[in-house]
UniProtKB/TrEMBL annotation:
Pfam families per record: SocA_Panacea (PF13274)
Every Antitoxin SocA-like Panacea domain range: 41-135
Biological classification of the source: Archaea, Methanobacteriati, Methanobacteriota, Stenosarchaea group, Methanomicrobia
Name of the protein in question: Antitoxin SocA-like Panacea domain-containing protein
Length: 170
């Protein structure tokens, strides 16, 4: 089930991906839906990457590594681009920004938006803190201490795939 109690619908994987898109394209896809605060954008991109590994068994984009920071998963490339926004929302983009993805990736992005888009940046932070991939990457580091540890894509794939399968049995 999604955080809103919605059923997760499986996505059939296709072999391979040419990965013509990067993490900025994923961010732009979400920004074509609404203006977003930086922290919320980071978490939505993280869930897009994680669910793509779980459901498609492939990355949704290039440069998709996330680190286990204090406030949850952070992609350092996105952080560098949007750090000056601080707490101000990043402006909404045109719908044209959303057209770069293959149909299966688009389906995953829509799933993430429908599942997590209504949550606040703080709810997304708390949710990511409650999940094994972020916890495992941080190891024993207290939540309030800095960490640059990479969240292992295999841990994402395994955790979200198990979550998916659990919800198929409900």
């Amino acid at each position: 089930m999604t955080p809103h109690g919605e059923e997760i619908v499986p996505v059939q994987a296709r072999a391979g991906s040419d990965l013509d898109v990067d993490i900025f394209d994923v961010a732009n896809w979400f920004l074509s839906k609404d203006s977003l605060q930086h922290k919320k954008l980071q978490k939505l991109c993280y869930y897009a990457v994680a669910w793509s590994y779980a459901l498609l068994e492939r990355p949704v984009c290039k440069n998709d590594l996330f680190e286990a920071w204090v406030h949850g998963p952070v992609n350092s490339d996105l952080f560098t681009k949007y750090r000056t926004n601080g707490w101000l929302p990043i402006q909404k983009l045109s719908q044209a920004a959303a057209s770069k993805f293959d149909p299966l990736s688009e389906e995953v992005l829509e799933f993430v938006w429908e599942s997590y888009g209504d949550l606040t940046q703080f709810q997304l932070e708390n949710l990511s803190h409650s999940e094994i991939p972020w916890q495992k990457a941080r190891g024993g580091i207290p939540e309030t201490e800095r960490s640059n540890e990479i969240i292992n894509p295999e841990d994402m794939k395994r955790f979200y795939r198990e979550l998916f399968e659990e919800n198929q049995n409900d």
